[in-house]
């Protein structure tokens, strides 16, 4: 082994941008750095422009839960096809930088996880022992985040049935529960069905099911104006 060459490379892999020689650049750490950077930029954009995210953030703020980009979000590599998660123990939202490549996908994941964070903030959710609590929040997240909106469903070739939105919400809630808890499909179905109507009809803080960005914009405006009448007295 060429000793001088080995010394030259020493440590450079930690700082890929400092290495000016293209041939010895460590492409793995460079691409991880790029993924992380891209994830942060898309997160910032979602927080500033998505009416879904903006409504959830102001609703949480008025409930005393202030969400901070740096403290409450983390971009990480995840296993399989997982897009994100909410870690109740640390109140942190994990965004899977290796699986989120488009802004529209980022917006949906941020919204979905913020709905869990909103539920965590407003209620004493027992995520680990009470499967009904978990099921309820998964139903709400699938129903209100746009996971089951028309265009997403068309993209998945599931379009057709009139009751499809409900079926989609039920299916996604089931999948989410089975991904994080070691219970049988039958058991999960039973729990989801028990709480479905109550949780499907709980639209807080949107006041309606936001089927489109436009719906979410209306909901956000209504939310911002909710105290206006009283404030003018
Ligand atoms: Zn979820």
UniProtKB/TrEMBL annotation:
Region (Disordered): 1-24
EC number: 3.4.24.-
UniProt keyword annotations, A-Z: Hydrolase, Metal-binding, Metalloprotease, Protease
InterPro entries per UniProt: Peptidase_M76_ATP23
GO molecular function, one term: metal ion binding
Biased composition (Basic and acidic residues): 1-11
GO cellular component: mitochondrion
Signal peptide: none
Enzyme class per UniProt: hydrolase
Biological process, per Gene Ontology: mitochondrial protein processing; mitochondrial proton-transporting ATP synthase complex assembly
Record family assignment: Belongs to the peptidase M76 family.
Name the UniProt record assigns to this protein: Mitochondrial inner membrane protease ATP23
């Amino acid at each position: 082994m060429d000793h001088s060459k080995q010394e030259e490379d020493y440590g450079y892999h930690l700082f890929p941008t400092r290495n000016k020689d293209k041939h010895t650049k460590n492409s793995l750490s460079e691409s991880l750095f790029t993924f992380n950077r891209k994830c942060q930029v898309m997160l910032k954009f979602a927080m500033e422009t998505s009416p879904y995210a903006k409504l959830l953030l102001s609703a949480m703020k008025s409930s005393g839960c202030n969400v901070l980009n740096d403290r409450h979000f983390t971009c990480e590599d995840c296993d399989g096809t997982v897009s994100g998660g909410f870690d109740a123990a640390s109140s942190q939202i994990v965004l899977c930088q290796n699986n989120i490549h488009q802004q529209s996908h980022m917006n949906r994941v941020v919204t979905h996880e913020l709905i869990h964070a909103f539920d965590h903030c407003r209620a004493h959710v027992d995520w680990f022992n009470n499967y009904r609590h978990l099921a309820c929040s998964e139903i709400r997240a699938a129903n209100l985040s746009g996971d089951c909106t028309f265009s997403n469903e068309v993209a998945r070739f599931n379009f057709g049935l009139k009751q499809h939105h409900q079926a989609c919400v039920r299916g996604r809630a089931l999948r989410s529960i089975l991904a994080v808890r070691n219970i049988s499909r039958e058991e999960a179905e039973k729990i989801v069905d028990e709480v479905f109507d109550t949780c499907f009809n709980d639209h807080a803080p949107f006041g309606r099911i936001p089927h489109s960005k436009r719906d979410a914009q209306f909901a956000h405006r209504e939310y911002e104006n909710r105290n206006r009448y009283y404030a003018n007295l």
